[in-house]
Design brief:
two-stranded antiparallel sheet, single chain, about 110 residues
Length: about 110
């Protein structure tokens, strides 16, 4: 299993590394996310679309700020939620995934991979 320090997957271009992409750190929750995330990465690689155009949820975008962060929810055993308020905007996340699943023009078909 791959873990990330902030408890969120890393998707997209690797900052400072041209033509390198990451699809990792699902913290044991990759099965329901990996297929659509991989379609988004494939669109970035094959069609040269930006992360924002790929349809992947913005919360998972790999940034230098996330990579440099001292936060470590896994080591500190911090919950990813605070006072029962999700850190992730579930409504936006669901909308992003629905958009990715429905927008066949921006992501390659499974057969094309």
């Amino acid at each position: 299993m791959g873990y990330s320090s902030d408890g969120l997957a890393h998707l997209g271009a690797v900052p400072g590394k041209p033509n390198q992409f990451i699809l990792a750190g699902f913290n044991g929750h990759g099965m329901p996310l990996i297929y659509l995330a991989a379609k988004g990465i494939a669109a970035m690689v094959r069609d040269n679309v930006s992360y924002e155009e790929s349809g992947m949820p913005r919360i998972f975008k790999t940034t230098q700020e996330r990579l440099d962060s001292d936060e470590d929810v896994m080591a500190e055993k911090k919950p990813v939620v605070d006072d029962q308020k999700p850190v992730v905007d579930d409504e936006k996340l669901a909308t992003d995934y629905e958009k990715l699943a429905m927008d066949d023009e921006k992501v390659p078909d499974k057969e094309d991979l």
